[in-house]
Amino acid sequence: MLLPDAPQKPELPLFLRGRIWVDFRQNHPEPIGQLIWGITGNRPTYEEGLSLETMSRLILPDQAANQESSDLEKLEILLSAQKWREADEQTKHILLKENQSNLLTAPQIRQLPLNLIDSVDQLWRSYSNEKFGLRIQRRLWQESLEPKKLPFDLRKPFAVRAETVTESQAWNRFGCLVGWRDHDEKALPDTKLNFSMKAPIGCFPQTRRWLHNGYGNTVKQFVALMERVAQLD
């Protein structure tokens, strides 16, 4: 457990660094419920979660509830019930709220509060058992940027064995990895997505739904978003 006065980046022994901890420095995911889940192996029900949330506020009175907390609490309730479609819509609402629901441009993405991005990501990763979330998407994006390996050519034994991948090509590869595109790299509508735990790793939240869809800008905006997520670490 990390208590409220723990340092932001605690120095942990090697055998603990790869473990998941309960963080009492924040409200999301709700820490007492996470602690009970970790000890007993049983996730608290929705009704139990509400009473635990009240208990957390009594224990940590300095973390006052506000509108942002209310939005994140709603997201947590939806995720805990595995209502992925509704949770995806709520995530879009949270991230676009300050922009009056307008889709985000690259400069606006670079101004998104890191603590808000981090809270959203932690909720998605926690309730999907590390299958969905922004850090998951960041890892897959890095994989999509890796050079393509070329087949060995006896006529050119010393030729370069990898071909550089452009950001546009990586965007298409990424879309196929997370299930936003079919095998022909054609973009799929929301109605074709699998809003369940059977969806591909990294499918949610649909960050593509936040991006301003001006001509030629989508890739740049997504790159800006992944750079912003990288700043969390």
Task: Give the DSSP E fraction (strand runs of 2 or more residues).
Answer: under 5%
Overall pLDDT confidence: 83
Classification by helices and strands: mainly alpha
Q: What is the rounded distance between the termini?
A: 19 Å
Radius of gyration: 20 Å
Fraction of residues in helix: 40-55%
The count of strands amounts to 2
Biggest sheet, strands in spatial order? 1-2
**In this structure, how is the largest beta sheet organized?**
2 strands, antiparallel
In sequence order, what are the helices and strands, one letter per element? HHHHHHHHEEHH
- Low-confidence spans: 58-65
What is the molecular shape? globular
Description:
It is a single chain. The protein is mostly helical and 233 residues long. It has a domain at 102-230. Helices cover 47% and strands 2% of the residues. The protein contains 10 helices and 2 strands. A two-stranded antiparallel sheet has the order 1-2. Helix 8 crosses helix 9 (167-178).
